[in-house]
Amino acid sequence: xxxxxxxxxxxxxxxxxxxxxxxxxxxxxxxxxxxxxxxxxxxxxxxxxxxxxxxxxxxxxxxxxxxxxxxxxxxxxxxxxxxxxxxxxxxxxxxxxxxxxxxxxxxxxxxxxxxxxxxxxxxxxxxxxxxxxxxxxxxxxxxxxxxxxxxxxxxxxxxxxxxxxxxxxxxxxxxxxxxxxxxxxxxxxxxxxxxxxxxxxxxxxxxxxxxxxxxxxxxxxxxxxxxxxxxxxxxxxxxxxxxxxxxxxxxxxxxxxxxxxxxxxxxxxxxx
Length: 272
Known about the structure:
This protein is α/β, with parallel strands linked by helices. The chain contains 11 helices and 8 strands. It has an 8-stranded parallel beta barrel, surrounded by 7 helices. The two termini are about 35 Å apart.
């Protein structure tokens, strides 16, 4: 019996940096479970982010703050089992890296060792540089995250655009360079002016991944349930809906209910 080899090469952090150098855009989406991860991996995305947005999308919270490290380990394990090509990156949740670089390193290590993640992502600039450096020097790939940082929602008080003032823009550019110097392999830029994202992208030798940050970033990321049209209440202008699964699922479930009520399901062919 012959075995057909898997010819799809696994995406690595090095591959993403090579894609930036070659001018090839990087496609990224979130994933939280095995079945959606398998489907999205088959689509050809380079990165699947197990985001702490699981708190909003799966757990029903208003913010990402309640998400724990144990939650992220659990969801990452499910995603990793289903993925054969994409680089799986896991968000470090609130209070898993803020206390000290040593604690951040231990928690990132758990995401790599117990969950099988290919890299971790954490929010912030200068304040997390020591943690990023400790991780990268010890073999843990790190993706940064600047701009709108959802874990800081209570500090900022809103989800409005970041980097809109000259002062904030300069800080963000310095933060991006500091993260790169500390060893980060990529940086997410969330909800910042497109012109600022373009400047930061040109400054860096590592890829920028945009969400609401314009077309000049080296890659783009969206929450998969947003781009598939499963959510109807969240309608930011940076989300393009590629499907209307909300309507499809309601129609399918409604038809199922009717068939059950009318006793037309199951049929003789669907029975034993």
